[in-house]
Amino acid sequence: MLAVDPSSPYTRGAILGDRIRMMDHAADPDVFVRSMAARGELGGLAATTWIAAAALDAAGYDPVLIETVGAGQSEVEVARVAETTVVVEAPEMGDEVQAIKAGLLEVADVIVVNKADRPGADRAARQLRAMLSTAGGRIERKPPSVMLTTATTGDGVPALADAVDQHRSVAREPLAARDRAAHQVRRALAARATERAAQHTDWDATLEAVANRELDPMTAAERLAGG
Q1: Among 58-62, 70-74, 156-160, where is mean pLDDT lowest?
Q2: Which among 28, 30, 4 has a CA at the least distance from the CA of 17?
Q3: Largest CA-CA distance found in the chain, in angstroms, rounded
Q4: Domain formed by 83-172, architecture
Q5: What is the rounded distance in angstroms from the CA atom of residue 133 to the CA atom of residue 139?
Q6: C-alpha count within 13 angstroms, C-beta hemisphere, residue 145
Q7: Portion of the chain with pLDDT greater than 90, in percent
Q8: N or C: which terminus of the chain has fewer CB atoms within 10 Å of its end residue's CB?
Q9: Which residue, among 120, 200, 91, 15, has the nearest Cα to 221 in the 3D structure?
């Protein structure tokens, strides 16, 4: 499991609370938990989350779970990395409104209303289903199912696991797999290009020129990439 935590905007450090919560399972056979700090990255993941996921997959871990920093306005990068995207909501928090506002309905393959034993859980699930039914052309595939779970008791969790397994056949179709591969290769190319640019002999001078408004960032990037 890869658990991504938000970072301080000043120190870039993180509490890594997921590591604390998962300590009861960290010693289980065939379980590996790795906490990662987002370090200012957008999209809800760390810059190297996709690399860590690929390494765990190559090592034979199945499944590989990725937990993002949380749902916000643009934290949907996980949908480009994961085969199946599960959006978890909670009742009595207005999250069903936030879900449609943030565009999470478009990227979700399965939607879960956790804490189903709490008042308002059924209402939240109904509202989410209603939103999906009226989404119209914004969702160009089969609408995701909305499920109810209670993590503390395990109620609904087996059904959720079955839903994720069923989605795998769709997620591993050639077109979907190629889209994920293309995204990973683009990320790798971008990382390599940035690394090479930072080693350019004119790196410091170019940054100084941009800082002094003598050069625009696009032209600076072209110079560093072409040198």
Answers
A1: 70-74
A2: 4
A3: 62
A4: 3-Layer(aba) Sandwich (3.40)
A5: 10
A6: 12
A7: 25
A8: C
A9: 200
One DSSP character per residue, 86-115 reads EEEE-TTTTHHHHHHHTTHHHH-SEEEE--
Tokens at residue 31, please? Answer: 């379980």
Q: How much is the pLDDT for 74?
A: 58
pLDDT, tens digit (0-9, with 9 covering 90-100), for 164-213: 999 988 888 888 888 888 988 888 888 888 888 888 889 999 999 999 99
**If you search the block for the tokens 């379980």, which residue do you land on?**
31
Before 29, cis peptide (omega within 30)?
no
One-letter amino acid identity for 62? Answer: D
Domain borders along the chain are 1-69, 83-172, 186-226
Element (H, E) at 145: strand 145-148
pLDDT computed for residue 169 by the predictor: 80
Start-to-end C-alpha separation, the chain: 40
Q: Which two three-digit tokens encode residue 119? A: 């008042």
